[in-house]
C-alpha cells in the first residue's frame, strides 16, 4: 500500500511545490501552511506589492476618468466588465477536445449572454430612452415600438438559442453539452442579476454607484496593507493570506472613510442628480434634504485654539455608515466565496487580465454583493424619503403604453398653450 511521504519529509520548498501541483486545497496542518502563506512571511511580497500597486493606480485612474465622463460611459464600463467576467467564467469548464467536435457551440454561450443583456438593460433604460428621443418623431415612434415589443423580442431570441442548443446535441456528448447549458445559465444569473443593480444605481445618481464601489476598493487596499505589515493571525481557511489584523484594520478604515467620503461626494450635483435620459450633458437638480448640510456646534470643552466652532454634516453621511459597515464585514464574504470556488476547480485566479490581481472576476466578487445591498438600501430607506411629484409622474408614465404617453403629452401641451393664450 502506497504511503504518503509528504508527512515525513521536512517542509522544504520542493515538498510544498509538490503539494500545490497535486491540489490547491489547504493542508490539514493549518498552522504550518498558513504561517508560510501570510504576507508578513512572504519573501517576494515587496515585488508583488509593486506589481499590484502599479495595476491599482492604472485601474483607479481609468475609473476616475470614466466617472468624470458620465453615466453612459460608466454603463459602458460595466458592460465591458461583464463581458470579461463572462469570458473568464465560460472558459472555466471548457474542454478543448469536446469543443473541437462541436463547431459553433461556444457562439451559443454568447447568444444567451447578449439576449440577457438586451432583456435586463432594455427594462432598466426603456423610459430613459423614450425621454431622450422625444424631439424626433421618427425615432420616437421607432423607440416606442422597440419598447412595446421588447419582452417578446427577447423571449423569441432566447427560444432561438434553445432550439439552436437542441439541434447541436451529439451522441456521447450529451452530458458535456447539458452541463455547459446549465453552467451558462448560472453565469448569466450571477453576472446579470447582480450587475443590473449596479446600472440601476448609476442612473439613480452616480453617488449611489461611486460610494459603494469606492468603499470596496478602500476595504481591499486597507486589508492588504494591514495584513502586509501586521498580519499574523489567519482569518479563514478559504483565503490563507487573509488575517484578523487585516480584517479589523480594514473595517475601521472603511467605516471612517464612508463617513468622510459621503460628505465630499455629496456636494456635487453631477454625482447626486439622477439621470432621466441617455444624454451626456450637465445635470442640475434640487439635491434633496439628504444632501443639504446640517451644522452642529462643538462641545464647550474643545480648546479655544481649535479653528472650527461647528461641524458640517450631510444627512446622507449617516446612511453611508451602514454602507461602510456592510462593505467591511459582509461584502468580503463575496471574496471568500470566490476563493472557495477557485479551490474547488483547482485554479489560482479566474484569469490574468490584471497583473497582480488576477482576472476581472477576482476584482468584482465583492463589488457584486455590495451593489445589490446598495440598491436595496436605497430603495428601502432613501427613496421613500425623497418621493416628489416628479418621481410620481415618472412612475405613472412607466406604467403607460407608448400611445397613452403620447396622448398625455399632447393633452398637456394643449393645456399649456390654452393657458398662455388666456393670459395674453
TrEMBL record:
Signal peptide: none annotated. Requires a divalent cation for activity. It is a multi-pass membrane protein. Residues 1-15, 24-33 have a biased composition (Polar residues). Its EC number is 2.7.7.41. The keyword Nucleotidyltransferase applies. Residues 1-33 are annotated as: Disordered. InterPro entries: PC_trans (IPR000374), PC_Trfase_euk (IPR016720). Keywords: Lipid biosynthesis, Lipid metabolism, Membrane, Nucleotidyltransferase, Phospholipid biosynthesis, Phospholipid metabolism, Transferase, Transmembrane, Transmembrane helix. Pathway: Phospholipid metabolism; CDP-diacylglycerol biosynthesis; CDP-diacylglycerol from sn-glycerol 3-phosphate: step 3/3; Lipid metabolism. It catalyses: a 1,2-diacyl-sn-glycero-3-phosphate + CTP + H(+) = a CDP-1,2-diacyl-sn-glycerol + diphosphate. The chain crosses the membrane at residues 49-67, 110-129, 149-169, 181-200, 206-231, 243-265, 316-338. GO terms for cellular component: endoplasmic reticulum membrane. It is found in: Membrane. Its cofactor is Mg(2+). May be involved in the synthesis of minor phospholipids and in modulation of IP3-mediated signal transduction. Belongs to the CDS family. This is Phosphatidate cytidylyltransferase. It comes from Daucus carota subsp. sativus.
Amino acid at each position: 500500500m502506497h504511503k504518503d511521504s509528504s508527512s515525513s519529509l521536512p517542509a522544504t520548498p520542493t515538498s510544498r511545490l509538490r503539494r500545490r501541483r497535486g491540489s490547491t486545497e489547504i493542508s490539514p496542518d493549518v498552522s504550518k501552511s498558513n504561517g508560510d502563506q501570510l504576507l508578513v512571511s512572504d519573501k517576494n511580497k515587496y515585488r508583488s506589492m509593486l506589481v499590484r500597486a502599479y495595476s491599482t493606480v492604472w485601474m483607479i485612474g481609468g475609473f476616475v476618468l470614466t466617472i468624470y465622463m458620465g453615466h453612459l460611459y460608466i454603463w459602458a464600463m460595466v458592460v465591458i466588465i461583464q463581458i470579461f467576467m463572462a469570458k473568464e467564467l465560460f472558459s472555466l469548464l471548457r474542454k478543448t477536445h469536446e469543443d473541437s467536435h462541436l463547431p459553433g457551440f461556444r457562439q451559443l454561450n454568447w447568444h444567451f449572454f447578449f439576449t440577457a443583456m438586451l432583456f435586463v438593460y432594455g427594462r432598466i433604460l426603456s423610459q430613459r430612452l423614450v425621454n431622450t428621443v422625444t424631439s424626433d418623431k421618427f425615432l420616437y415612434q421607432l423607440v416606442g415600438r422597440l419598447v412595446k415589443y421588447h419582452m417578446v423580442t427577447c423571449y423569441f431570441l432566447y427560444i432561438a438559442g434553445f432550439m439552436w442548443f437542441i439541434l447541436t446535441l451529439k451522441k456521447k456528448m450529451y452530458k458535456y453539452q447539458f452541463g455547459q447549458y446549465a453552467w451558462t445559465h448560472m453565469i448569466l444569473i450571477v453576472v446579470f442579476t447582480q450587475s443590473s443593480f449596479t446600472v440601476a444605481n448609476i442612473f439613480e445618481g452616480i453617488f449611489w454607484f461611486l460610494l459603494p464601489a469606492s468603499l470596496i476598493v478602500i476595504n481591499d487596499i486597507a486589508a492588504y496593507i494591514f495584513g502586509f505589515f501586521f498580519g499574523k493571525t489567519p482569518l479563514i481557511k478559504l483565503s490563507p493570506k487573509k488575517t484578523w489584523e487585516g480584517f479589523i484594520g480594514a473595517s475601521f478604515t472603511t467605516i471612517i472613510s464612508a463617513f468622510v467620503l459621503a460628505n465630499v461626494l455629496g456636494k456635487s450635483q453631477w454625482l447626486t442628480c439622477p439621470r432621466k435620459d441617455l444624454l451626456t450633458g450637465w445635470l442640475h437638480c434640487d439635491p434633496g434634504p439628504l444632501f443639504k448640510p446640517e451644522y452642529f456646534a462643538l462641545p464647550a470643552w474643545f480648546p479655544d485654539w481649535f479653528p472650527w466652532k461647528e461641524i458640517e454634516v450631510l444627512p446622507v453621511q449617516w446612511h453611508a455608515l451602514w454602507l461602510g459597515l456592510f462593505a467591511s464585514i459582509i461584502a468580503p464574504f463575496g471574496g471568500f466565496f470566490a476563493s472557495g470556488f477557485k479551490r474547488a476547480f483547482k485554479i489560482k485566479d479566474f484569469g490574468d487580465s490584471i497583473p497582480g490581481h488576477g482576472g476581472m472576476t477576482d476584482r468584482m466578487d465583492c463589488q457584486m454583493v455590495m451593489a445589490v445591498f446598495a440598491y436595496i438600501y436605497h430603495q428601502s430607506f432613501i427613496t421613500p424619503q425623497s418621493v416628489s411629484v416628479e418621481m410620481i409622474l415618472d412612475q405613472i408614465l412607466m406604467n403607460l403604453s407608448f400611445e397613452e404617453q403620447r396622448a398625455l403629452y399632447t393633452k398637456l401641451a394643449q393645456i399649456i398653450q390654452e393657458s398662455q393664450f388666456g393670459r395674453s
